[in-house]
Each structure stands twice: as C-alpha cells, then as structure tokens.
Recover the amino acids of this structure.
C-alpha cells in the first residue's frame, strides 16, 4: 500500500495520521513481516491493525541450488480466478554474476499466452498474482538484501497483469517504498500493445520484447499473440519513443535450428529494427518434452550474431544459467515434489 492508502486505514482505525508514515517505514525500510514488529507504534495501534490487516509476506516453501550458483525458489500462492480461488506454485530465480545479483520474478501463476516453446505456457493460466505475492519474491529470499537487478521474466506475461505490475513498480521505485532506480528493473513482454503503451508512458524501467522471428506468419506458428498484436505494430509503437538515454529496449530471440537462424531471418531483423536504438539478446533454446525443435549450434548462433552486427544491430549471446534445476529461460513450470503437492492440496 502507498502512504495515501495507509492514511485511509489509520483514519478508519482512529489512529494519528503520522502512523501511516511509520507503517510505510516498517514495511519498506525495515521490511518487517509482522505488524507486531512495528515497535514504535503503540500497543493499541498494533492491536487495531492486527485485527483487520496483515503484512502479507509470503516466504518460499522450497529452493534449489544450481551447479552454477543460480537458485530457484518456489512459493505457494492462492490466486483469485473467475471460477474461484486457485492454489498454485510459482517460481522465482536468483542469478548471481560477480557483483550483480539478478532476480527473475513471476507475475502470474501459469500463463495465458501459450507460446509453444515455453513450459510455463504449457500449463495454462491459474490466476494473477497480487502485489504482495510479487513483492514477497523480492523481500523474502535469502539474497534479498544484495539484489542489484529485478527482471519480470518469470512465470506469466507481466502486461497481462498490468494494474498489479504498475502498483509493484511504483512501490519499488518510489521514495516512500524501496527507492530503487528504474534502471535496475526490466519488464519483459511478448507484445501486448495497449498495456505496453501504458508502461512506456507511465514508467521508466527497461523493456524486453520476446520477438523470436521477424516474419509474422512464422512467428504465429510458435506465438499465438502474433494474431492479436503483430510484431511489426509492436516495433512501430516502440519507434515512437526515445531509447537513446537511460531507458533501454532489448529483444529476446531464442535460437531454433532450422526455424529462425539463417541469413534471411538475420537480414529481416535488421530491416524490422532499423532506426530503433536497441539490443538483441540471442538465447540458446532449452529443450522441452514433446517439442520437435532443438537449439542452433554455437557456430550458427555466432554467424547469426555477426550478420546482425553487419546490419548495425547490437547483438549478444545470453549465457544459459540454471538449466540443471529447470531455472533457465522457458523452463519455469512450478514443478513440485510429492511433499509440496500435498501442501498445495491442503
């Protein structure tokens, strides 16, 4: 909650107005998990608050450590859906890299978008996360205090849960909140144009667009969103904004052998993105069951990168992290042990 929302609560409970700023300080400055820990509030104030409210902190139920240092956290969540509350498992991934510690955050339980190469998309959509469930991924993990970057690239399409995403971004970046610079935050999307425009207008964080194929008919084979929002229209929207300053735009491009990795695709990318200050992140495809494609070879990926550079498009190869614990790109699926499944079913 924002300070203004906290003031409404304190007024309803008959508490002094300054109590709202005290609560905000405890929530975002000291990151308490219980109202009882707000020790500069009177005992009466804490009792009144506890009768109707809770902090909403949701700690992980399990974590897995990769051989490369990547760590995947599992959280139990209850999500409202049109048919009732759905209990699910979501995942967040902490990726260490020298002085950097990046957390890959989920915004939904499952995903509606159904991209064929994504394990999250295969499980369908189980509900939107609320702001507390998203922020808990950031505040309750063991590495919380040393996080340097946050990427909304976990489970779900962030812009399909835009109102909550916006609330979380405000909380992360506001002086009354966690006071993060928006330069430390990246939101990924497959191109939901109305909400993308709102994100561009309302926030200053970096943006990453899942592109994967420059040809609309081919992109549609793997990504149903192409039918609703053509990638050419997504790029046209982005070209209306200035990315020469602190805010960056990047494009995610997963490499599939024989599908999107030849000179024709590289040249089409150059034409599509011409005039846009951007970067392309080339990603090795991580094999999933019952999917016919495999990743491009290292030689093909490098030749593709060089072709993009020849077209004056900055291109980098993203290192694969956490594949051994199903934490790499496209592999998040809320997988549980039998013990965890019993917890969810309770």
């Amino acid at each position: 909650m924002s300070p203004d929302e906290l003031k409404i609560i304190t007024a309803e409970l008959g508490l002094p107005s300054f109590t709202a700023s005290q609560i905000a300080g405890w929530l975002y400055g000291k990151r308490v998990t219980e109202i009882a820990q707000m020790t500069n509030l009177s005992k009466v104030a804490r009792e009144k608050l506890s009768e109707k409210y809770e902090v909403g902190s949701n700690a992980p139920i399990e974590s897995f450590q990769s051989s490369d240092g990547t760590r995947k956290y599992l959280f139990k969540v209850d999500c409202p859906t049109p048919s009732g509350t759905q209990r699910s498992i979501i995942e967040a991934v902490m990726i260490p890299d020298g002085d950097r510690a990046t957390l890959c955050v989920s915004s939904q339980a499952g995903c509606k978008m159904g991209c064929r190469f994504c394990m999250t998309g295969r499980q369908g959509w189980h509900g939107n996360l609320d702001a507390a469930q998203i922020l808990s991924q950031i505040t309750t993990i063991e590495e919380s205090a040393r996080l340097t970057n946050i990427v909304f690239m976990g489970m779900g399409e962030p812009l399909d849960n835009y109102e909550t995403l916006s609330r979380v971004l405000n909380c992360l970046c506001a002086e009354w909140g966690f006071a993060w610079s928006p330069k430390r935050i990246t939101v990924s999307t497959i191109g939901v144009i109305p909400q993308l425009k709102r994100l561009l207008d309302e926030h200053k964080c970096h943006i990453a667009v899942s592109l994967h194929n420059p040809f609309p008919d081919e992109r549609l084979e793997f990504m149903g969103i192409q039918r609703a929002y053509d990638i050419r229209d997504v790029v046209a929207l982005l070209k209306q904004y200035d990315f020469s300053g602190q805010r960056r735009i990047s494009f995610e491009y997963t490499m599939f052998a024989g599908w999107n990795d030849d000179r024709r695709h590289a040249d089409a990318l150059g034409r599509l993105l011409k005039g846009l200050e951007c970067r392309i992140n080339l990603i090795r495809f991580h094999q999933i069951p019952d999917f016919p494609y495999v990743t491009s070879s290292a030689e093909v990926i490098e030749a593709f990168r060089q072709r993009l550079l020849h077209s004056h498009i900055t291109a980098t190869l993203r290192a694969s992290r956490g594949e051994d614990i199903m934490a790499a790109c496209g592999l998040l699926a809320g997988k549980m042990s039998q013990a965890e499944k019993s917890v969810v079913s309770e």
Summary: The CA atoms of residues 4 and 269 lie 46 Å apart. DSSP finds 13 helices and twelve strands in the chain. The chain has a mean pLDDT of 91. The longest helix spans residues 298-310.
